[in-house]
Amino acid sequence: MSSNAIVQTNIPGYPCRRGKVRDVYDLGNRLVIIATDRISAFDWVLPTPIPDKGRILTELSCFWFRYLAVPNHLIDTDPTAMPEAFRQQADALRGRSMLVRKTEVVPFECVVRGYLAGSGWKDYRKTGSVCGIALPSGLRESDRLSEPLFTPATKAESGHDENVPFELMASQIGQKTAEELRSRSVDVYLRAAEYARKRGVIIADTKFEWGRLPSGEIILIDEVLTPDSSRFWPGDQYAPGGAQASYDKQFVRDWLESTTWDKNSTPPALPSEVVEKTRAKYMEALEILVRSDPL
Ligand SMILES: Nc1ncnc2c1ncn2[C@@H]1O[C@H](COP(=O)(O)OP(=O)(O)OP(=O)(O)O)[C@@H](O)[C@H]1O
Ligand SMILES: [Mg+2]
Questions:
Q1: pLDDT in tens, 165-194
Q2: Cα 231 from Cα 246, distance rounded (Å)
Q3: Pair 78, 120 in one domain
């Protein structure tokens, strides 16, 4: 992998929507999703990119699409399969681009939790339940749940997602569709978690997005099972009763917390040591899950 970080892409001739991390070009009935090396934390895009991060996330997503073999949006990753304007920048785009089928996005993030962490843990501490699902008392932070919970969230405009009860999702998209997405999301989570477990990685939770094709069929879209959409924990260090080490932007978050930054203004640039350590963490997840020898 080269280490020339890509902060933003510019492909002439196609409408582009920039998320915090990805640039999404609209080709009509298809999209090209390009994962840049931007990194976000505390809902801010940081001024310093993490070289190769976009490639690492793309390789992970594409691996899972192949491994899971559920109907999904991926068509091709080779820039030469894309329109001329993309082919002209093939070298920069290779490894970080996905040509996908455009769908009508189901407006709920399909979150599956196998362990009690993040907003699930906060909710449990306050209410004894997670998104309205009652749990036994006495659970600790990071405890494994007896079965995975489906806890949908709305895609809030502010960028901060809001957990909602399953019934709300069902009332908006229909009971049958909501149940189908719950069962498909839990199924994908369980299969991925089992694969990762054998390699010493815990997938504590993850978020899926689903979208509807013009035919009506609902397929898996967006990125899947990356450190940006999931909590990956090293299994050999797992110790419930507190927060866990993870294969993501932990170093970045910890470092930001150690500065005087108020989280309400432009974040500070990252020191090179933090960049390197973060890149190494993302890389480690990729090596273990995708590039290691088959078991
Ligand atoms: N096959 C698809 N059809 C339609 N939209 C898709 C498809 N795959 C992904 N998307 C959408 O593309 C966008 C991906 O960009 P990205 O994740 O960077 O932005 P975001 O999630 O909207 O914003 P942010 O990440 O900044 O919170 C998401 O809005 C996602 O819902
Ligand atoms: Mg997103």
A1: 999 999 999 999 999 999 999 999 999 999
A2: 7
A3: no
Coil vs helix vs strand at 220: strand
* 96 inside domain: yes
Domains in the chain: how many in total?
Answer: 2
DSSP 8-class letter at 141: T
Tokens for 81? Answer: 């399969």
Q: How far is the CA of 152 from the centre of ligand 2 (A)?
A: 14
Range of the domain at 133: 104-237
Q: Is the CB of 221 under 6 A from ligand 1?
A: yes
Ligand 1 pocket test: pick from 40, 222, 223, 228 the residue with the most ligand atoms within 8 Å of its Cβ: 222
Cα 131 from chain centroid? 20
Q: What does pTM read for this prediction?
A: 0.95
Q: Is the CB of 31 under 6 A from ligand 1?
A: yes
- Considering the domain architecture, whether residues 73 and 136 belong to the same structural domain is answered as no
